[in-house]
Structures are given as C-alpha cells and as structure tokens.
Specification:
Rossmann fold; 3-stranded parallel β-sheet; about 35% helix; Transcriptional regulator; NAD_biosynth-regulator; Rossmann-like_a/b/a_fold
C-alpha cells in the first residue's frame, strides 16, 4: 500500500485490513508531501500503532529491498499505473467509498464531522486541549462544568471529558478516547495547551504558549457562559489541517 494518510481514517484502515487478510506480508509506504503539516514520521507512527502486523516504511527503497511485490492495494480505480511501477497486480478495494464514506480531504476540512472515522492516535493528536488555570476550586469547578455543558450537546460531544491537574496519563487517555475537546484543570502553566482560560489571579505566572482568554462574568454562570463562548470561537477556527501549498495530498 502507498499513501500519504494525512490523516489516516477508517477507509485507509479497511484497506490495510483487507490486504492483511489476503497477503502473507504487507508493507505500507507512508509518503512525504510538499508543505506537509503532519510529519511523515508522525503519520507512520499512527499507522504502525493501529496495524502492528504491517511493515510501515517511509522510503520507496525500503519497499523494493523488502522482497518482491506481488500486489498493490488501493481504493482508486486508476491505481493500475502504480501497480505496474512495482511490476505487480492492482487490487482495488471499495473505490466507491460505500463502506466508509470519508476521505482525508474531508477530515482535514471538518475533523469534528469525521470524528467517528478516526482511530485513537489521530484523535489524541487532534483533540483541542483547553485548560482552566487557577487555584482550586477556581480551576476544577469550571473544567467540570464545561465538560458537562458540552456533553449535553449530544452527538460527538457526548463523550466530552475533563481531567484534574497533574494527571498526564489520564489526560492522554481521555484525549484519545473522548470528544474533539478536552478540558483540563491546571494549577500551573507548564504543560502545552491549545487554549488557556484564566479563571483568577495567576500566582505561578502566565503560559507562554497557546491562546489566553481571561474569564469575566457576573458570578459562576456568567463566567461559564464566557468560557463556552471562548471555546466555541476557538473550535470554529483552523485545526491545523488546512490544504498545503500546491493542492491536495
């Protein structure tokens, strides 16, 4: 298999599993692309985690030195020239995208709408991490309330989670298995976050990364409303998967 997998989605994984069922050995070549926003090594790591039985490489030379190539699996009807380049048979799988109506371009355009087509490694990378910075309960209470507010929206947001401070392992698990946004109660500004909600005086200093929003409002309800507005605005902006210069991958 050859592809950019930017990012990999359910259609890609179906193609890999189909090839694994029909082959003695499968090599997945993860290609680089001009102006790529997700490094090839990251995409290769995602594919290797989801498909430990496959040999995942980032070099055509690695494919050619790995033994003969009998078949090239694609989901494109025009995959014949690629197969001929390897001196192999072309096996086309679900070219109509009937089983999994998704594409990498669709994921890049609307990650939230395609969330159910993504595996855990990609979800963990994409999840927008929002930290409420302040001393307890100024951080913990809003983080929990924000998660509950988004859960009530239903759909993909029903799995929204929040995590207490200083629990990195729990945070990573929640990011990989939850909704597109994760709320974190933060006592310090050391960890990397996409958005910081400043809930009170910051004795430990301000974060030097990510966007910062000072929460202001009349009482807890007003501050929660301000926080939801800030998060919604942030989620409505770019997710870092815009089309690269020169066109589609």
């Amino acid at each position: 298999m050859v592809g950019t997998f930017c990012p990999p989605h359910a259609g890609h994984h179906h193609l890999v599993r189909t090839a694994e069922d029909r082959c003695e050995a499968l090599t997945v070549l993860v290609c680089t692309a001009a102006g790529e926003l997700v490094a090839a090594r990251t995409r290769a790591r995602w594919m290797a985690e989801v498909h430990p039985r496959a040999r995942v490489v980032r070099s055509v030379r690695s494919v050619r030195t790995g033994g003969r190539v009998d078949a090239v699996f694609t989901s494109e009807r025009h995959g014949d020239p690629l197969a001929r380049a390897f001196g192999a048979e072309h096996v086309c799988v679900d070219a109509e995208r009937a089983l999994f109506p998704v594409s990498a371009a669709a994921v890049r355009k609307d990650p939230v709408g395609c969330w159910d087509f993504l595996e855990q490694p990609v979800r963990g990378w994409l999840t927008r991490r929002v930290a409420v910075l302040g001393a307890d309960p100024a951080a913990t209470t809003p983080a929990r309330a924000l998660a509950e507010r988004y859960q009530r929206r239903g759909g993909v947001w029903a799995g929204t989670r929040w995590v207490p401070r200083c629990e990195r392992a729990r945070e990573e698990h929640a990011a990989r298995t939850g909704a597109p946004v994760l709320f974190c109660a933060a006592g310090t500004a050391r960890a990397a976050r996409h958005l910081w909600l400043l809930a009170g005086p910051q004795e430990g200093g301000l974060p030097d990364h990510g966007r910062k929003v000072v929460l202001r409002g009349a009482g807890p309800a007003g501050m929660l409303g301000a926080a939801v507005d800030a998060v919604d605005t942030f989620l409505g902006e770019s997710w870092g998967l815009d089309e690269p210069p020169g066109g589609r991958w």
